[in-house]
Task: inverse folding
């Protein structure tokens, strides 16, 4: 049965780096995917103004999502300026009620960057709030509450490590080798970020970095390219392995 899948992370390109192969696999099986970023990446340029780079990056994210037939929109928070507070939580609940996902992939609760951790916490709590009838979002045309809490999975942190550099182990690794080239092409849509890194580091490291991380994640599971996920285990979130079932046993390697 076709499922609705929401991939929601902090910035344009995070989802492509951490879950681009998995989303390609899910799209190839006919599932309906929406990609949401918390911000339009308005701090991601040394030359353009915040609003200029934001509009460039919204387009890049849209183009990347279009490659797998996914919709994209931005929750319009701003870089380094959103937290788990009351108005932000209501806004993210409204995002969930609009998209109405069966399954959500979001940021790791522990990651190298504040926005990633804030995104993770907001999405986690919005899953809880989205079915609660009396929790009003204050949106102009509010969507109805969800029927139930969606399945919630965390992506790996960037680089697969926590703030101490220690590995964050996923529950399982998805073998994304069949779609690694597509993942790379999706990430390449984020031209502004590739150019930014090239200018600052002097090397074209953007795609290579993603490749190294995807290889390293795969290595943990004995496959060439991998993406790790873990299900959120808090009560009363659904615990049956929906993502693993949608992908199929031959592409999922348990590591924990
Ligand atoms: Zn990010």
Result:
């Amino acid at each position: 049965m076709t499922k609705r899948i929401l991939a929601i992370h902090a910035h344009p390109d995070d989802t492509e780096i951490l879950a681009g192969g998995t989303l390609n696999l899910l799209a190839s099986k006919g599932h309906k995917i929406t990609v949401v970023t918390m911000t339009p990446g308005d701090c991601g340029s040394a030359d353009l103004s915040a609003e200029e780079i934001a509009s460039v990056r919204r387009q890049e994210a849209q183009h990347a999502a279009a490659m797998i037939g996914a919709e994209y929109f931005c929750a319009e928070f701003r870089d380094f300026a959103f937290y788990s507070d009351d108005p932000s939580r209501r806004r993210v609940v409204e995002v969930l009620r609009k998209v109405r996902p069966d399954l959500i992939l979001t940021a790791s609760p522990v990651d190298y960057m504040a926005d990633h951790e804030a995104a993770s916490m907001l999405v986690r709590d919005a899953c809880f709030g989205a079915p609660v009838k009396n929790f009003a979002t204050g949106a102009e045309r509010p969507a109805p509450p969800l029927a139930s809490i969606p399945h919630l999975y965390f992506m790996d942190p960037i680089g697969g490590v926590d703030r101490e550099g220690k590995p964050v182990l996923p529950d399982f690794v998805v073998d994304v080798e069949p779609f690694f080239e597509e993942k790379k092409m999706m990430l390449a849509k984020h031209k502004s970020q590739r150019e930014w890194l090239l200018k600052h580091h002097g090397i074209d490291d953007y795609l290579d970095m993603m490749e190294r991380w995807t290889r390293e994640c795969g290595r943990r599971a004995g496959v060439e390219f991998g993406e790790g996920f873990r299900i959120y285990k808090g009560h009363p979130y659904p615990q049956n392995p929906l993502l693993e079932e949608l992908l199929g046993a031959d592409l999922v390697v348990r590591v924990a």
Notes: The chain has a mean pLDDT of 97. The radius of gyration is 17 Å.
